[in-house]
Structures are given as structure tokens and as C-alpha cells.
Amino acid sequence: MDKNNVVLYKLTANPILAQEVSDILEIPLGESRVTHFADGEVLARSPDSVRGKTVYVIQSTATPVSERLMELLIFIDGLRNAKAKEINLVVPYYGFCRQDRIARAGEPITAKLVADLLETVGINRIITMDLHTPQIQGFFSCPVDDLSAIPLFGEYYRKKLSDQGISSKDVAVVSPDHGSIHRARDLASELPDSSIAIIDKRRPAPNTAEVVNVVGEVRGKTCIIIDDIIDTAGTILASAEALMSHGAKEVYVGGTHAVFSNGAGEKLLESPIKDIVVTNSIEHEIDGIHVISIAPMIASLIEASEEGNAVPDSWMAFY
Q: pTM of this prediction?
């Protein structure tokens, strides 16, 4: 990899993650300047010369979502105007991802709208992690690398269960809804001889979940709830309660994207859930919640891309 021809940038969402990627690749972060004017307008630019260079911009579109998205659009427009050779966008958490279809008349498909906006300003490729649904990849005409956190969670839980003296035969990997069954299946394949269970739920209103039933045997088992997004934690808490009422021995929780709205992190820590682990796709500092860094995976993907090597299939999200 020609490190002199690659420039890494961070904006405001993932400064720690971006620095970790920079340290692994031994490529210093470029200078990015983000200014907020009195009326709320954003100016994001770099004074560095990027003419003819390959650029990677690391920024999750997390809270405040609209502000982070505008930073990205404005910064990328500046890079394109500065004649960057290639603009690669690393969005560990892709905001607006849950609005991916028309559920009721008159609703927008915001996940596609955001994809259109990013392509309009000139990105050549997007790297993300655990998209909420697979069809979002089809909203882009540029290449999309959708990484999976499952191998990271698999490694974490194998060590965790070994340290606790728990056999994977006594583990049930739980999907908190029917849409996440592929994640539960993939994590169960990382934990040989574990079983799978599904929480049958419905949503009477946004950010409100009601558990109807538990499908699968969980009595006497260590249950691992695995999900892509933990927002208000309503689904996770309701699922954990249902599992315990069905005789589960204990409940662990793993989630890729820790949105943690309305104090969700603290609510999880106050619950009977024994262990909580997330990635740093969204950066938080909450004592008691374990964080797995995705920096090595992102750095390895960038290095493989620049050297023309294939990305390991095990890293990619398959549905």
C-alpha cells in the first residue's frame, strides 16, 4: 500500500475509532475542520491537498443524525472539489437505516434518500457494518462493503463462556425478532452445539415493543440476545424479561450499534441482564458495558483494498 497516496479523515462522530485505524495503518489523520455557525449551518473542510489521492472518511451518522449527515455531505463535496482521486466513505453506523421501505401510505424510504445524497456528492465506495436490512445495499450504485460484527462477537463469547465454565451446549442464541434470525443463526455457528430461539414480538408504536411469545427451548440455558441496533433498549429489556419468565438461567446481550437513546445504557445496567457488549461503531463511555473495537477490521479492509487483496468472506454480512 502506498501510504503517501492515502489520506484518512475523521469528523465529529468517531474520533477514537478513526485514531485507532490511523495507528494500526500507521497513516496520520488528515486535518479536518468542522465549524458551526450561529444559525446552525455547518462548514466542514480540510486544508490538506488531496489532489490525485485516495481518501477515506470515517463518520457514523449517529446522534445528532441530521447534523452528522450534513457534515459528511459538506466535507465530501469539498474533497471532490479539491480533486481527490477516490472518496471512500466509512460509515460504521448508517443512520436512517430503519426507514427502508414503505410501511404506510405516504412514508418516505429515507435509507434510499440518504444513499442518493451520498452518491450525488461524489462517493466512490461505502464501507459500513451490519446494515439493518440487506436491501439497503441495493440503494447504492457504487460498491458497498457491509461488514459483519458476528466474528467479533463469536470470539468474545467463546472466551466469556470458557471463563465462566459454560458449555455452548447450554447456550441459546436468541433473535429479538424475526428480522434478526440470520444474526442469531450466524452467531450460533460461532458457538458449536448452541441452539437458537426467537422472540415473537409486535410493535404497536415506534420504539415500543410487546413480546407475544418465545419460540424455542430456553429453560435452564444461558441466553445470548444478539441484535444490530440497541436504541431505547425496549426490545432487549422486554425480551430478557420474557426469557427469564420462560426459565432462562441468565441473559447476555450483544449489539453492534449502541444508539442508546433516552438513557438506554443505564437501563440495561439496572436490569437483570448479566453481560452487555457492543462495538464502537457509535462511541460511548458507560462503565459496565463492554466495547469491542472494530478498528482492526476496518484497517485490514482498507489495507486489503489498497493492495488489491480479497476481503475474507467471514467478515461480510450475509443474509
A: 0.92
